Amino acid sequence: MFDKVLVANRGEIAVRVMRACEELGIDTVAVYSDADRNAGHVRYADEAYNIGPARAADSYLDHEAVIDAAEKAGADAIHPGYGFLAENAEFAAKVEATEGVTWVGPTSDSMEQLGEKTKARKVMQGADVPIVPGTTDPVTDPEDVRAFGEEHGYPIAIKAEGGGGGRGMKVVRTEDEVEDQLESAQREGEAYFDNDSVYLERYLEQPRHIEVQIIADQYGNVRHLGERDCSLQRRHQKVIEEGPSPALSDALREEIGEAARQGVKASEYVNAGTVEFLVEDGEFFFLEVNTRIQVEHCVTEELTGIDIVKWQLRVAAGEELDFAQDDVELEGHAMEFRINAENAAADFAPARSGSLDVYDPPGGVGVRLDDSLRQGDDLVTDYDSMIAKLIVHGSDREECLARGRRALAEYDIEGVVTIIPFHRVMLEDEKFVAGEHTTKYLDEELDDEKVAEAQEKWGSSEAEADDEDVVEREFTVEVNGKRFEVNLEQRGEVAAVPANGNSGGQKPKPAGGSDGGSETVVDAEGETVTAEMQGTILDVKVEEGDEIQSGDVVCVLEAMKMENDVVATRGGTVTQVTVGEGDSVDMGDVLVVVD
After folding, report:
1. What pLDDT is attached to residue 496?
2. Helices 250-266 and 117-126 sit at what angle, rounded to 10 degrees?
3. CA dihedral 13, 14, 16, 17 (to 10 degrees)
4. CB neighbourhood size of 535 (10 A)
5. Helix (H, G, I), strand (E, B), or coil: what is residue 229?
6. By CB atoms within 10 Å of each CB, which of 31, 365, 393, 540 scores lowest?
7. What is the rounded CA–CA span in Å between residue 328 and residue 266?
């Protein structure tokens, strides 16, 4: 077994992996960005290393920085968690090539084969697993999309090869949307997965989303751990996951599980993974393989009693699975609720800031919480909106629903808006309670008025900003990039007044001027278009001198895993553009000036 594991991730999944390591007697190493200096996963780890600025591309996605931290720490393995570099075959290959460091996951070759969706489709076809009609080679030309539409009809799903969780997936409903949606899918694929390759599939209108958990060792043993139903989604982002699926017959459940196991076995896959399917009208179709641990792996752990993360580590260390397929039994029913810092009543708008003034999670029989934040922690909004995952388990689905209602009612969070009220609505929703929902239910049938009423009744709001500036005195220090804790700390002192005495009435600040570099100056006349939230500029649509109309998109801002069009509120001439592709911006930063 390993002596020390570096977890190349953050938040609750980093802590989840570290807890498994601790139970196995393994020391842990955290990596963190400047934005995460005081994050929960940094506190939990035995040691921690700073790997760069807040922008993910300069920290959590920096291959060399992560591997360098592992070598400095003397770690003999790297666990990627999910997201970030977890499905990056290039990074996995670099880890494999690093002397004395083991990659905790499938081999880079397997990730290349199954992680890229077109290659995975070919593998599954070869193993006689049904696949959704689509392309098995990447698509780059809009004419190829149109040709596919002529043959199979619309709508069409354009999907990023390295994508997952709805990222890099765009739906083309008419021929007029081809260029924009193709470009958007490619852009998201590049931004999130460092891979702009995309492929096409027929878009099923009312499917269930069923996934099967797999674990395989290097001795040819492949086990499936049952299925999870992830059909309750909003814009292809899973919100509530459960298992076993209320929509499958026993015969179909067995058929899907065996198809997943055989497909993975044919690819000579090793370690944990998830085979995803779409189910419609009694038929199932292979969707993709996620070559990593899933956010919702906890559901399977509660049903089977099998610690999937521990088995990831054991398999990577060369151990053989010690249980047969017949030993895997699903006991009762489990559900996972993603506790996101979002306002469901405002189109799931992510919280822009806040701190956990009150954080009192639920407990009791059948209740599990995976989190990393604690009361008093500030919300970090640079990456995603997840605060925690609440998992409940019961003897059957009815008890599980009742336990979920009780646990969500107990969950007390103040200072940050969350989607807890939305979850409580869903546990009273007739269609969800009956298990009759599909992946389209939230987007097409959700009663927004009920959600708004729930938010008003049960929701917390974002804390108001203090009138006075506050300086947090840091006494956590870094030496050669390694974090050290000292015993002195001061907080809450009033900040000094700037020498120029400027205390208000300022113009909105331009983007890009707070990182120690030269500040961009807004020197053009006109009305400013500012960032409504913190995020990263994915695309700039205008240039200086362009004539635009009110409502025109001036740039595309990514925040909380969603693309947001930034639009001009008036027409005129663009007199200044202060941002470029890849720039990080804060709320209120000037992006464009229009006169």
Report:
1. 38
2. 110
3. 120
4. 26
5. strand
6. 365
7. 21
Residue whose pair of structure tokens reads 């720039």 in the numeric block: 583
Mean pLDDT per 10-residue section of the chain, whose length is 595 residues:
97 98 98 96 97 92 97 97 93 98 96 81 90 85 93 90 71 93 87 81 89 97 97 90 96 95 92 94 90 96 98 98 96 97 91 93 97 95 92 98 98 96 96 94 91 93 52 60 61 40 40 46 83 81 90 81 77 92 81 92
Q: What is the identity of the amino acid at 128?
A: D
- CA dist list (Å): 141 to 73, 171, 398: 46, 16, 49
Q: Which two tokens stand for residue 42?
A: 């940094």
Backbone angles phi and psi of 294, in degrees to 5 = -100, 155
Q: Give pLDDT, residue 508.
A: 45
138 prior amide bond cis, ω within 30: no
170 strand-pairing partners: 158
CA distance 563 to 384: 13
Burial 263-302 (b: 16+ CB within 10 A, else e): bbeebbbbbbbbbbbbbeeeebbbbbbbbbbbbbbbbbbb
DSSP symbol at 268: T
Rounded distance, CA 299 to CA 308, Å? 11
pLDDT number for residue 163: 64
Please compute, for residue 420, the number of CA atoms within 13 A of its CA located in the half-sphere on the CB side. Answer: 27
DSSP per-residue letters across 445-501: H--HHHHHHHHHHH---BPPPPSS-EEEEP--EEETTEEE--S--EEEEEPPPPTT-
Residue 332's contacts (CB-CB under 8 Å, 6 or more residues apart) are 303, 393, 394, 395, 396, 399, 400
Give the largest CA-CA distance in the chain: 75
d(CA 372, CA 343): 21
Six-digit token string for 229: 């139903």
Residues facing residue 211 across a β-bridge: 228, 276
Picking from 363, 309, 384, the residue whose alpha carbon sits closest to that of residue 84 is 384
342-343 vs 349-350, strand pairing mode: antiparallel
d(CA 172, CA 169): 10
> Cβ contacts of residue 184 below 8 Å, gap of 6+?
170, 563
Predicted pLDDT at 507: 38
Distances (CA, A) of 347 to 387, 451, 569: 18, 10, 20
Query: What pLDDT was estimated at residue 520?
Result: 61
Separation of alpha carbons 538 and 231, rounded Å:
29
Amino acid letter, residue 431: K
Which is nearest to 296 in space by CA: 331, 335, 323?
335
Predicted local confidence at residue 584, as pLDDT: 80
Give residue 462's pLDDT. 62
Q: Which pLDDT belongs to residue 121?
A: 84
pLDDT of residue 116: 74
Length of the chain in residues, anyone? 595
What is the spatial distance between Cα 587 and Cα 386, in angstroms, rounded to a whole number? 19
Q: Show the tokens assigned to 129.
A: 């697993």
- Cβ contact 274:295 at 8 Å: no
